[in-house]
Every structure is written in C-alpha cells, then in structure tokens.
Specification:
- The chain has a two-stranded antiparallel ribbon with strand order 1-2. A two-stranded antiparallel ribbon has the order 3-4.
- The longest helix has 13 residues.
- The chain is of the alpha+beta class.
- Helix content is 25%, strand content 22%.
- The protein is built from 3 helices and 4 strands, in the order E-E-H-E-E-H-H.
- The protein has one domain.
Length: 104
C-alpha cells in the first residue's frame, strides 16, 4: 500500500504516507522517517513487487505522539507486551530506537 504500483510507476512517497496516516490515524498527519528496513530477496517471484536483491523501505512515525490508530485499523501494543509479540520483526530495533525503548 505504501508506494504501490500504479500502472507500472511508483507514486510519490508523500502520497503513500498521506494514505497510510489517513487510513490508520484517521487523518493526514505529519510524520518523520526514523530509519529504513532492508529487505533482501536474491530472486523475486512474480508476486514480489519491490526491487531485488535489496529494497530499502522507510519507517515513519507520526510527529504527534498522542495520535492513536482509529478503531478497526489494528491493535495497539503497549511497551509491556511489545517485546514478546514483536521482537522477531525486522523493523523492531528501529521502532525501539524511535520510541526510546530498550532493545536487548
């Protein structure tokens, strides 16, 4: 969804971020990039739409920390539950750094 493929072209990042914040935070919200996740796929199949062998995907957070996901857009995971549920995710260290959480 972020940048997507529209007729063989990638849309501007600002448009993708605006769609994400509108869908998951209920409105267009200012964001900041806190890092990048590198996806490494030596050879992609027909379902893999990102560049190969590496794609660097930005990770954004809202500038307003009081914004919460809108109802039905997912589940909020607090600091006490997050390590057990999310530590294996490839973006976990970036999220910890952005949120000021320990990540041992």
């Amino acid at each position: 969804m972020f940048l997507g493929d529209r007729g063989g072209t990638w849309r501007p990042a600002a448009e993708g971020v605006r769609e994400l914040t509108s869908r998951h935070l209920g409105r267009d919200a200012a964001t900041r990039c806190v890092g990048f996740v590198r996806n490494v796929v030596p050879v992609g199949d027909e379902s893999y739409r990102l560049p190969v062998p590496e794609a660097h995907v930005p990770v954004f957070v809202p500038r307003d920390p009081s914004l919460l996901p809108v109802d039905g857009s997912g589940s909020w995971v607090g600091a006490s539950d997050a390590p057990a549920l999310l530590a294996e995710r490839h973006w976990w260290l970036i999220a910890c750094e952005a949120l000021g959480w320990p990540h041992d």
